[in-house]
Amino acid sequence: MANVAKYDRDSVVRKAMLLFWEKGFNATSTRDLQQAVDMRPGSIYAAFGSKEGLYSEALKCYSQEMGEILQQRVSEADSPLTGLENFIRNVIIERRNVVPSELCMLVRTLSEIDDTQPELMSQTKTLLRKVEDNFTRILDQAQEQGELAPGANTRMLGRHLQVQMIGMRTYLKASQNPQAVEELLQSIFAGIRAR
Amino acid sequence: MANVAKYDRDSVVRKAMLLFWEKGFNATSTRDLQQAVDMRPGSIYAAFGSKEGLYSEALKCYSQEMGEILQQRVSEADSPLTGLENFIRNVIIERRNVVPSELCMLVRTLSEIDDTQPELMSQTKTLLRKVEDNFTRILDQAQEQGELAPGANTRMLGRHLQVQMIGMRTYLKASQNPQAVEELLQSIFAGIRAR
DNA sequence: CTATATTTTGAGCGGATGTTCAAAATCAAG
DNA sequence: CTTGATTTTGAACATCCGCTCAAAATATAG
Q: Is residue B155's pLDDT more than 60?
């Protein structure tokens, strides 16, 4: 051993994630990244291999943070369904002004990546699938606790929630109308509880 | 008058629209466009001013085609609600393999455009708002014909439908599971009719 | 301190990008 | 056919892109 890296890898990845989330993959140049993480190109490429490699780690970082927020909201809430509702409200509305984009970073990635980057594409699909799985798992808990009817299809309900979360985030970016989104959110969960 | 343009403007815009829809704004190079519409750069810039100008016309073309499909499906259907359902099914599922992308071109634009192109951004928002207005108008007709309860909030229902359509298109791109989307669609419209 | 292994630096490469513009081609009018 | 306005052409420009690599800096081991 002779010299040791001076940067904190997690902090670098997180800064890159925030920039990628804000501007997207294509619109973020390697020079933008160099400035954001305060590293020279040689160091970045030694650490991450390529712009795509760094983006891949940024995606992981994004998903992990989202997963932690979900877990936290569910554990703080009175019930699984309320935890889910609070998570979605927190991500879309409450954190709106402290976050680089209204959109989901995974959806953004899905929008601009094509088959020339098959690894990023399949990673993104896998991470989105994990969100659906997490939603479904929490809905299973809701069902066990009698918050959902015994016959409810939690897998389909999880898909439905993911679809609506994706749609609401996009809608908020387009409409800049958080109140409308709050109404939609309440109506969605009122519908789920009513069954 | 001396010389007259040899290209058909509408056909050029449509070809550009299909390419932009497939690859997005940033990933579509002007050379890609030159090949797709079989025009040299000078002619393109004389006709459209810039890549952004051509994209703007492509957005209009996309929205007009979508609007025509909606109108056609509604006029063919037994009822407004069925027309809406058939439109969404047609756009997301049936036309899946004859169209350049599962995603809505407007949503794609929203994903990759930022404030450095404010005109494209506001145009996109306006066009999305018109979709919501169209949905709401058709839901009003459904209400007049007794297909919806008199107390139903058609504006919010229209928003809800747009949110879910955006979400389902994104979900289909990620999951490649049209059957799941069909189930979601049926469940959405069953819920609407039940109220 | 010296020797050695590792990291950091930044100038620069090859190529792609959006756009321009002078020259050539085209076609209606006279 | 000649004239002249208009369109078409494509080479070329300035800039930016992702990325490389030899040289300099750094820190540990002996």
A: yes
For an interface test with B, the pick among A127, A135, A166, A176 (most B C-beta atoms closer than 10 Å) comes out as A166
Q: Is residue A131's pLDDT more than 90?
A: yes
d(CA B148, CA B80): 10
Give the separation between CA B157 and CA B81, rounded to whole angstroms: 12
Q: Which residues of A touch B110 (CB under 8 A)?
A: 103, 170, 173-174
Q: In whole angstroms, what is the distance from residue B80 CA to residue B66 CA? A: 17
Query: Is the whole-model pTM more than 0.85?
Result: yes
Confidence grade of residue A3 (pLDDT, cut at 50, 70, 90): confident
B19-46 pLDDT tens trace: 999 999 999 999 999 999 999 999 999 9
- To which residue do tokens 């305060």 refer? A38
What H or E segment, with its residue span, contains residue B33? helix B30-37
Query: Cα-Cα-Cα-Cα dihedral of A128, A130, A135, A139, to 10°?
Result: 140
The alpha-carbon gap from A149 to the nearest alpha carbon of chain B, in Å, equals 16
Cα B171 to Cα B177: distance, rounded to the nearest angstrom: 8
Count of H-run helices and E-run strands, chain A: 9, 0
